[in-house]
Give the backbone structure.
Amino acid sequence: DAGITQSPRHKVTETGTPVTLRCHQTENHRYMYWYRQDPGHGLRLIHYSYGVKDTDKGEVSDGYSVSRSKTEDFLLTLESATSSQTSVYFCAISTDRGFSNEQFFGPGTRLTVL
Amino acid sequence: EDQVTQSPEALRLQEGESSSLNCSYTVSGLRGLFWYRQDPGKGPEFLFTLYSAGEEKEKERLKATLTKKESFLHITAPKPEDSATYLCAVQATGTASKLTFGTGTRLQVTL
């Protein structure tokens, strides 16, 4: 158990509303990631963080922003949700061993945008 | 651009019927190849990391192998509890720990 929690676990919202998803870790890892998972596309990286206030974009970052003000929390915000952002969102942390790193995933948040 | 292709998309086996899942990849420079298992409604669960061609890792009924172009996940005498989606991912050198995933193989093991 990598000590990762995500909240909320399920959310239904309407187009145009802002949404914030939270990822919390208990093990003080430096790297944190947000992915979305959609049928036929697999897991795709949205944004990642390599330290407090240090973040960078992944391959599908348009329409998303992130913040990391504390080591343990990584927030994903949809400023104005669209139906194309209906997906399952996973947070992950990295063990950051230098040469390579395994990533461990949270339980996911299922987001539906109507 | 890094790419990962997994085959088959779906596989149905009877209990005890061994088989292999394939993960083909193209990457500028391989830092690591990862296998995950994902059960419905849950996050991916880490299984193995492979770093260089010729390397093998085993865990219970699973064995992962790596060549310069592909990786195989061999499942020996599977049980129904091995039913899951198996995901492959690659990490390229100089990519700040980012992973590129395949779309997975959905495995069903029946009695």
Observations:
- Chain A touches chain B at residues 31, 33, 40-45, 48, 50, 56, 58, 90, 92, 94, 96, 99-108 (CB under 8 Å).
- Chain A has a mean pLDDT of 93.
- The radius of gyration of chain A is 13 Å.
- The longest strand of chain A covers residues 42-51.
